[in-house]
Amino acid sequence: MKIDNFLMSPDAMKAQLTMSKDKTSSDKFTRELESAVSKKDKQKLMASCQELESVFINKIMESMRATIPKSDVVEKSFATETFESMLDEEYSKNMSKTGSIGLADILYKQLSNKL
């Protein structure tokens, strides 16, 4: 990471933060999946599937937010965008835990055959 990040625009900083967070989430899912398969741990496998579903839902929500036109009525600051990003992340975690989308269940059924 560069020390001179203060020279970056807020949009570039946000893009770099998002890419870093996505890579971390992907690496974490891969490690947990490999661990679950090696230990034949079905609960951990389900948790990993729910986490992947959460990342997928979060990406959909990011895309949905990007389509909302910006207006001058309510200013969008970096803090507001960060808060909305964190809020969307929590929403997606809760949605994946309820099983309302069903992607985690499908992934679990597909991957549990390999246990």
Q: Would you kindly provide a brief summary of this structure?
A:
It contains four helices and no strands.
Oligomer: single chain
Beta-strand content estimate: under 5%
Helical fraction: over 70%
Compute the separation of the termini in Å: 39 Å
pLDDT averaged over residues = 81
Shape: elongated
The SSE order reads HHHH
Largest sheet data: none
Q: Detail the poorly predicted runs.
A: none
Summed up, the helix count is: 4
| Cα gyration radius (Å) | 17 Å
Q: What structural class do you assign from the helix and strand content?
A: mainly alpha
The number of distinct β-strands equals 0
If you had to describe this structure to a student in words, what would you say it looks like?
It is a single chain. The chain is mainly alpha-helical. The chain has a domain at 76-115. Helix content is 75%, strand content 0%. The chain contains 4 helices and no strands. Helix 2 packs antiparallel against helix 4. The mean pLDDT is 81.
Any chance you could write out the topology, listing elements then pairs?
Elements: H1 10-39, H2 42-66, H3 78-98, H4 103-112
Helix pairs in contact: 1-2, 2-3, 2-4
